[in-house]
């Protein structure tokens, strides 16, 4: 089966409603109040809270009632090596993206709800209740911010004149267990910033992959490069970005086509021609200082 | 003239009205529309200024001159290196648009930053971001206001809990100097702060605006900010507000406990209940600084 444009719009509307009425208020109410409650995930930087789990179960419950045949992959219920994203329509959900922000009350936590079919993101809703920003899109129906079409101003796209989202992430060990990701990222940041390298206008970090994807979709950032995040961090934003004329490729050079769970991405805004986007990607890749690796 | 003879609260109110009614609308309307901009004279390709910066500075200057004819004025656009001095006289120190790169790219963190020093000390500060409609203001001994409402500093401090390097979110900005020893010092220090063998901070954020970063520390969204290369007008307003919340500004280099407003390198740390804890935080932070930031 393939979902029609109309069906997708209907799903988008339902997700917007769920985000606005149920998930958003919970995130807003609990942000910045969880200091004593968080438990460790991978290490002390990667935080998960009871609210995260509670919100995921609310979303899962609602969606399984509305769409009993669709699969569900959520950050909190994900099991490494067991959870597989197949061809069937599958909701890919991050109940709270930007957990560190959420804990610190930094106003860039949001809920991120995406749907893939045949592995392709076809619907996405990202809601930041602190700034009251609802980004939403579905395949063939366009991208919107709070109901208004996202229009990226047509302009040139050049690496040197770009502002790019770059995050440190939670993986911070240098060279341990043959894993060079932290060092490669730091060297790449340096290459991009240096006057001997990309010499980009600037880098920005908001600490939320979903918000970064939406900012690129809106053309407020030119690109976002990331390694280490998960399908649920990018799935919704991916659809929103694609509908706004942007593209997602791999974070490592020459990876023009990547699956939603690649874990390493480069997102580039619209508002320019496809050759301009490709040129930007190639130039960006030339500054990547090694191969980021997330599959073993 | 001593600040005790000035009605600082009324100056704060005046600057708030100026920011919201006259400056904000221009920044909001023109953000993302300036596709032609200059590299600052004799300067780097990533250090940019637009015609609007100059226009807004003129607007602010002509207004405050009328209201406070005896006060001196230091503005980003009218500043002359080697000539402009900050004296003991009441002096407006203003950045018409802080976050010019954000302004050009329409990243929603450009703002106006209006400060007043008396006896070289920041005693009034007003920061207004029209994209987020966020106005934060303070004056010496008068506390802090957010969008005109009194801000409960004590309640916020209690909510945030203890201040520790490893559980903090730190603002870091590479800025526009991308060469030489300062750039190297910054890159190494970032790595030290992030690394699991170093500060292992919860995360870093990069907003691309010093004034907005200081505002976010005052609001309790961020714990600290470390930077070099910025100017008095980038920090003057935020400095006053931060002080009113119990926060501190020091030099970016270890041991610089007392610095003037035009120091060019800064470490800003949020307030907390225990001053001892704040001092400990500062020392631990300085331990991660690798090299020395120097600007003339």
3D architecture notes:
The complex is a heterodimer of chains A (about 300) and B (about 300). By secondary structure, chain A is an alpha+beta fold. Chain A folds into 2 domains: about 140 residues, Fructose-1,6-Bisphosphatase, subunit A, domain 1 (Fructose-1,6-Bisphosphatase, Chain A, domain 1), CATH 3.30.540.10; about 130 residues, D-Maltodextrin-Binding Protein, domain 2 (3-Layer(aba) Sandwich). Helix content of chain A is about 30%, strand content about 20%. In chain A, the strands form 3 sheets. A 7-stranded mixed β-sheet of chain A has the order 3-4-5-6-7-8-9, sandwiched between helices. In chain A, strand 8 and strand 9 form a beta hairpin. In chain A, helix 5 packs parallel to helix 6. By secondary structure, chain B is an alpha+beta fold. Chain B has 2 domains: about 150 residues, Fructose-1,6-Bisphosphatase, subunit A, domain 1 (Fructose-1,6-Bisphosphatase, Chain A, domain 1); about 130 residues, D-Maltodextrin-Binding Protein, domain 2, CATH 3.40.190.80. Chain B has 8 helices and 14 strands. Chain B has a 7-stranded mixed β-sheet with strand order 3-4-5-6-7-8-9, sandwiched between helices. In chain B, strands 11-10-12-14-13 form a 5-stranded mixed β-sheet, with helices on both faces. In chain B, a hairpin with a 4-residue loop joins strand 7 and strand 8. In chain B, helix 1 runs antiparallel to helix 2 and helix 6 packs parallel to helix 7. Chain B is globular. The interface between A and B is large, with 49 and 44 residues. Chain A: InterPro entries: IMPase, Inositol_monoP_metal-BS, Inositol_monophosphatase-like, Inositol_monophosphatase_CS. Chain A: It catalyses: a myo-inositol phosphate + H2O = myo-inositol + phosphate. Chain A: Keywords: Hydrolase, Lithium, Magnesium, Metal-binding. Chain A: Its EC number is 3.1.3.25.
């Amino acid at each position: 089966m393939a979902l029609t444009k109309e069906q997708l719009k209907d799903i988008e509307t339902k997700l917007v409603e769920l985000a606005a009425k149920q998930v958003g208020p919970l995130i807003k109410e609990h942000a910045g109040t969880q200091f004593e409650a968080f438990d460790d995930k991978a290490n002390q930087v990667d935080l998960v809270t009871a609210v995260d789990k509670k919100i995921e179960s609310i979303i899962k419950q609602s969606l399984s009632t509305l769409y009993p045949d669709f699969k569900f992959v959520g950050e909190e219920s994900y099991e490494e090596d067991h959870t597989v994203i197949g061809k069937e329509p599958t909701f890919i959900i991050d109940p709270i993206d930007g957990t560190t922000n959420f804990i610190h009350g930094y106003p860039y936590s949001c809920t991120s709800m995406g749907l893939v079919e045949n592995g392709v993101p076809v619907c996405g809703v990202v809601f930041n209740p602190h700034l009251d920003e609802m980004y939403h899109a579905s395949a063939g129906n366009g991208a919107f911010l709070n109901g208004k079409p996202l229009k990226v101003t047509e302009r040139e796209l050049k690496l040197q004149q770009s502002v790019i989202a770059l995050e440190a992430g939670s993986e911070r060990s240098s060279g341990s267990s043959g894993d060079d990701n932290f060092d490669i990222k730091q060297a790449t940041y340096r290459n991009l910033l240096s006057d001997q390298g990309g010499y980009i206008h600037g880098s920005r970090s908001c600490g939320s992959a979903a918000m970064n994807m939406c900012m690129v979709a809106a053309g407020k950032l030119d690109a976002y490069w990331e390694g280490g995040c998960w399908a649920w961090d990018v799935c919704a934003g991916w659809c929103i970005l694609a509908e706004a004329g942007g593209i997602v490729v791999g974070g490592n050079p020459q990876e023009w086509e990547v699956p939603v769970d690649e874990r390493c991405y480069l997102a580039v805004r619209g508002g320019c021609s496809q050759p301009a986007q490709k040129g930007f990607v190639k130039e960006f890749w030339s500054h990547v200082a090694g191969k980021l690796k997330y599959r073993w | 003239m001593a600040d005790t003879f000035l009605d600082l609260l009324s100056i704060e109110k005046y600057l708030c009205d100026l920011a919201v009614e006259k400056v904000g609308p221009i920044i909001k309307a023109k953000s993302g529309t300036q596709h032609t901009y200059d590299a600052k004279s004799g300067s780097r390709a990533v250090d940019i200024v637009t015609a609007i910066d100059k226009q807004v500075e003129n607007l602010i200057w002509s207004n405050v001159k009328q209201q406070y004819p005896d006060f001196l004025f230091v503005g980003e656009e009218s500043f002359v290196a080697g000539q402009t001095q900050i004296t003991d006289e009441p002096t407006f120190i203003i950045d018409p648009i802080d976050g010019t790169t954000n302004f050009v790219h329409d990243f929603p963190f450009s703002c106006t930053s209006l400060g007043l020093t008396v006896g070289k000390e920041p005693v009034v500060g007003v920061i207004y971001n029209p994209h987020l409609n966020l106005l934060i203001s303070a004056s010496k001994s008068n506390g802090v206001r957010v969008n005109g409402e009194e801000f409960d500093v004590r309640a916020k401090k209690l909510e945030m809990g203890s201040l520790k390097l490893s559980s903090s979110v730190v603002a870091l900005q590479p800025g526009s100097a991308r060469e030489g020893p300062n750039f190297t010092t910054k890159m190494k220090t970032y790595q030290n702060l992030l690394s699991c063998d170093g500060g292992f901070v919860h995360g870093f954020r990069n907003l691309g605006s010093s004034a907005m970063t200081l505002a976010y520390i005052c609001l309790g969204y961020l714990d600290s900010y470390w930077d070099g290369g910025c100017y008095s007008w980038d920090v003057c307003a935020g400095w006053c507000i931060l002080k009113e919340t119990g926060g501190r500004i020091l030099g970016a280099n270890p041991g610089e406990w007392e610095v003037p407003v035009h120091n060019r390198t800064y470490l800003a740390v949020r307030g907390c209940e225990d001053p001892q804890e704040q001092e400990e935080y500062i020392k631990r932070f300085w331990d991660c600084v690798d090299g020395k930031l120097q600007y003339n």
